[in-house]
Specification:
This protein is of the alpha/beta class. It is about 50% helix and about 15% strand.
Length: about 290
Amino acid sequence: MLDRNTDILIVGLGLMGGSYARALTAAGYCVDAIDRDPEAIRYALAEGIIRAGATDADPALIGRADLVVFALYPHVFLSWLEAHQGLLKPGALLTDVTGVKGAVVKAVQAGLRSDVEFIAAHPMAGREVSGVQNSTPDIFRGANYIVVPTEKNTQSAIETCRTLGEVLGFARVSELTPEEHDEIIGFVSQLTHCIAVALMTCNDDQHLEEYTGDSFRDLTRIARINDEMWSELFLLNRDALLSQMDAFEAQLGRLRETIASGKRDEMRAMMRRSAERRAKFDKITK
């Protein structure tokens, strides 16, 4: 279980890893970090958000960690484990922040030592900036945290991961299977980023910022996208994402047809259903 005696190591001290470090340190936990960027480590040490840090796979930091949080791109995460899992303490618990689970969880659990355990998690939070310098635990407040267990996980690991989400300050902690996670994330996260990208690239007017109102700015906020990370996530979750894109195109086509044919009653019915469903989000926001 997670307590103040738990030594925590964060591998990848960017926006998400840095926000974890800030929240956990503020809550009284001992947090170390590894990041290949020496400036990220220097900053985190200077700010007091980590106890110790290194720019390589430091055996001492890795070997004393009871809980290791991987805040890395999926392919980097897998490569890191292949190269360095021998340094992990027997009994260590590993978790992650990766946005796709099916392709990652199976690969990690299949190749992991038998004396350590990996429990997947997905913090549904972020900002349109990167780096530990922009990290803040505020992104977790009111947000959702998803634990993604498999049949290979112990109940103790699941409970520890749930506790981690609570300590970080998430408003809601839930559980999904890897398959359920990837299907729903394909809709609520990846599809929305696809829509934002498509909106920002379907009109070449170079002065849009001079004319737009809040609705366009709100809808396209996530269009300031990390192309390296999101392209990898899209391709790892290709089938689920394409299915959600097809469903969206069908509904957009239906709305287009009501406009083209002047079917105002049908159009208003779609709008009412949309408004009713969106109102449920307002009720659960803290």
